Amino acid sequence: MSGGHNHPHDHNQPPAPDEERPPLAFEALEVSIRELLIEKGIISADDLRATVEFMDTRGEALGARIVARAWTDPAFKARLLAHGDETVREFGVDMRPTELCVIENTASVHNLVVCTLCSCYPRPILGVPPAWYKRRDYRARAVREPRRVLAEFGTVLPADVEVRVHDSNADLRYLILPRRPDGTEGWSAERLATLVSRDSMVGVAVCRQPGDVGQAAAE
Amino acid sequence: MSARFAKGDPVLVDDRDQPGHVRTPVYVRGKTGTIERIVGAFPNPEKLAYGQSGLPYRYLYRVNFRQTDLWPDYGGKPTDTLEIEIYEHWLSPAPAGAAKGG
Prior knowledge:
The complex is a heterodimer of chains A (219) and B (102).
Chain A: H1 25-39, H2 45-57, H3 60-72, H4 74-82, H5 84-88, E1 99-104, E2 109-114, H6 123-126, H7 131-134, H8 136-144, H9 146-152, E3 162-167, E4 172-177, H10 189-193, H11 198-202, H12 215-218
Helix pairs in contact in A: 3-4, 8-9
Chain B: E1 10-13, E2 32-42, H1 45-48, E3 58-66, H2 67-70, E4 81-87, E5 91-93
Antiparallel strand pairs in B: 1-2, 1-5, 2-3, 3-4
């Protein structure tokens, strides 16, 4: 074939499909309701776009600031563990209509969050959940064989550390307070926050270590 | 209205089939655990999901289970546990010591 280029393959592959698969019932319902709300002037398309944009701005940075504050302020940490909702309001976070439950990792217990029934996640703090969090295999296996799942995330825990799985199945949303890495004595909260990853706040990983972050972040 | 169970109480999760927006997964039904905390009282999500009020409020607990009580062939460590939120109308008292964990 001569398509103006020269390379060793033919062009017999089927073209990429132009059409998406037919919409599922709930997708059709969502489009119908959305279009009706816009047609009736109850919301605008721009309202909708701005809301999605806002949801996408929430992510690990906010959670990392909360964790770093807890590491550097014992009174804040005590409030965070005892009254999560009220305490994160200091960071402008409104958890309603759910409640926030903050669980602390320790030298003897490592905590892991999953929602086996759907994909409940502390969205006001961590934003949109990662795709794997919503997958059926993560949801089924995190409760059934958490140590194997953790190992697949690169997290291998000592045998004497208890793994405690939290099924986020009803009205609470969970944030894991990871362990503060060694070698960070005297660090500011701002610098500590660079060590806190999304995955460490879901519990599938531990925090980045001081040697893991780039020089720019560490300085 | 007061909570029927207290922290540390051994409880048995009902093993019953119930269609709808049920928040009690099958894998804990018929299993015995220990109350970890009383979360508080909430409208019943099994009703709320269908446009009803969900009233009266129902007590919600966090219940701790030994993983080896949930999965007879659990491959992790015997000290591993799982905690989950269970509504009071799914729980009944279990004999002391029925949950190996706690």
